[in-house]
Hints:
mainly alpha
Amino acid sequence: xxxxxxxxxxxxxxxxxxxxxxxxxxxxxxxxxxxxxxxxxxxxxxxxxxxxxxxxxxxxxxxxxxxxxxxxxxxxxxxxxxxxxxxxxxxxxxxxxxxxxxxxxxxxxxxxxxxxxxxxxxxxxxxxxxxxxxxxxxxxxxxxxxxxxxx
Length: 151
């Protein structure tokens, strides 16, 4: 009886993933890439970071993976491009000229714990709600006797 040697798998030539100029397509548009009704459009990382840069006179890079992760997470929660612009606008308005201006960066503006409040802050389009719980207008302190005033 002879010894049977195990057979080794056949050698396979590795596939090259190098760029082949013959395979490139020209004049592709976003519509061509995302023609399916089920496909979602790409997340506008560049547009969001460019908008923040314009508002803050910074030079942040949209390719930064940490920024993309924050933006993608907010998009997965249902945020829109307009939500990002609104958050940037609201906080730029609130923090301009203050010590908080240094926090006008993606890691602050787009984090989960604060993003929604930044989107809804300083909303000038909402009707003003009475600050006294909805029981009418502001009190007139001239109608209150001096002895009853807290100061």
